[in-house]
Write a structure and sequence with these properties.
By secondary structure, the protein is α/β, with parallel strands linked by helices. The protein has 8 helices and 8 strands. The longest helix is centred in the C-terminal third of the chain and has 14 residues. The protein is globular, with a radius of gyration of 16 Å. Bound molecules: D-xylitol-5-phosphate and zinc ion.
Length: about 220
């Protein structure tokens, strides 16, 4: 299972977003995590298709789009057209989760399903076979810079055991409050895609990403 850092641009400096993405790419970040918030499913509003489209083609990084959006099936085609490679929806936000996943696949994207801190891993059981990535929120979705919720580690372990028991090779992504100081426990719990906003975009971007990449080397 490849370990990947996915910098969340929610914490980026939008005055120089392109320059910052070049720095994270050159330092080894293979994904860009794109936190879309609609002000309904979560209290904040962030950004949407036009910003994503402006990034597409500018970078070879995988565009890992996290929809914190009510009834996201409405926007699957639009995010495919804007260039999303992975489209992650919240189990709590979908009228029909399986239909939403089918729609994501029919638009040529990988499907991700996310659960909030208070949603049990069992909510993912109906879609384990047909989903490429699962996103365990380690903070309440809506804002960057929050503290990591330690109970998330048990959920990551539970999900990884469930996937292993069924022989399913899916990625587990974790998002929220992850820093160089706590990433090892997240990796040890079984996660392999790490979202980091503040830990990457606050301070020296190159050093921050390099720090994560150095820790990944401990697992090779
Ligand atoms: C919450 C957002 C944040 C963001 C990462 O809705 O999804 O978790 O990506 O924020 P940091 O890394 O700053 O906690
Ligand atoms: Zn996110």
């Amino acid at each position: 299972m490849k370990r990947i850092i996915a910098p969340s641009i929610l914490s980026a400096d939008f005055k120089v977003l392109g320059e910052q993405l070049k720095i994270t790419e050159q330092a080894g970040a293979e994904y860009i995590h794109f936190d879309v918030m609609d002000g309904m499913f979560v209290p904040s509003i962030s950004f949407g298709m036009p910003v994503l489209a402006s990034i597409k083609g500018f970078t070879t990084q995988v565009l890992d789009v996290h929809l914190m959006v009510t009834e996201p099936i409405r926007y699957v085609e639009a995010f495919a057209e804007a260039g999303a490679d992975i489209l992650t929806v919240h189990a709590e936000a979908c009228e029909d989760l399986e239909k939403t996943i089918e729609k994501i696949h029919s638009c040529g994207m990988k499907a991700g399903v996310s659960i909030k801190p208070n949603t049990p891993v069992s909510a993912l059981e109906p879609v384990l076979e047909n989903t490429e990535m699962f996103l365990i929120m380690s903070v309440e979705p809506g804002f960057g810079g929050q503290a990591f919720i330690p109970a998330s580690l048990e959920k990551i372990k539970e999900l990884r055991m469930l996937l292993d028991k069924k022989g399913i090779q899916a990625d587990i992504e974790v998002d929220g409050g992850i820093y160089l100081t706590n990433i090892r426990e997240v990796l040890n719990a079984g996660a392999n895609v790490i979202v980091a906003g503040s830990a990457v975009f606050k301070g020296n971007l190159k050093e921050n990403v390099t720090g994560f990449m150095e820790i990944f080397k401990e697992y090779e």
